[in-house]
Write a structure and sequence with these properties.
The chain is about 30% helix and about 15% strand. The strands form two sheets. Strands 1-2-6-5 form a four-stranded mixed β-sheet, with helices on both faces. The protein has a domain at about 10-45 and about 90-165: Ribosomal Protein S5, domain 2 (2-Layer Sandwich), CATH 3.30.230.10. By secondary structure, it is of the alpha+beta class. The relative contact order is 0.22.
Length: about 170
């Protein structure tokens, strides 16, 4: 039997996307850095955009609203004996999310895009090892020295250090 492979995806739930989330982490977060990266880390709460069953249905409608195709037993998924929301709609509401800052001092647009891709890949590969329930804004300190291996090691060590400091 083949060994079970862990899926190392980078879903939308693992990304900081709203400017308000970036601002909150930068204003209230703990800053940790090393030679490769600077991270701002803040605890994540359910109010930070995480889905919860009480906020509404999977389509974002008001709570208690039924799905479109219903019968007298409830939503179409309930009629089949399944879940009323799609799988993954409430998956890992407190997973660690990352946002990446790259300013012009790091180079032109293709160079900054490459830095963002490397940091995203390092985060994607390291997700199972990282502490849960954190929002992270990441900024490379310089273009030099940002490789996948160095970025991954830096991300793991800085987040474990920040996680310990936030616990106390």
């Amino acid at each position: 039997m083949a060994a079970e492979r862990t899926r190392l995806r980078f879903p939308a739930e693992a990304r900081l996307r709203r400017a308000a989330d970036f601002r909150r982490v930068l204003d209230e977060g703990l800053r940790v850095s090393d030679a490769v990266l600077t991270l701002w880390v803040a605890r994540r709460t359910m109010a930070d955009g995480a889905n919860s069953p009480t906020e509404g249905d999977a389509r974002g409608g008001p709570a208690g609203e039924k799905a479109d195709a219903t019968d007298d037993r409830g939503s179409a998924a309930d009629a089949r004996g399944g879940l009323s929301t799609p799988l993954g709609a409430f998956s890992a509401p407190l997973c660690t999310r990352i946002g990446i800052r790259t300013g012009r001092r790091l180079g032109n647009s293709p160079q900054r895009s490459r830095l963002r891709r490397v940091i995203r890949e390092a985060f994607r590969l390291s997700r199972p090892l990282l502490p849960a329930g954190l929002d992270v804004v990441c900024s490379p300190r310089s273009r030099a020295g940002v490789t996948l291996a160095s970025c991954r090691a830096s991300l793991e060590s800085l987040l474990s250090r920040a996680g310990r400091r936030l616990r106390t």
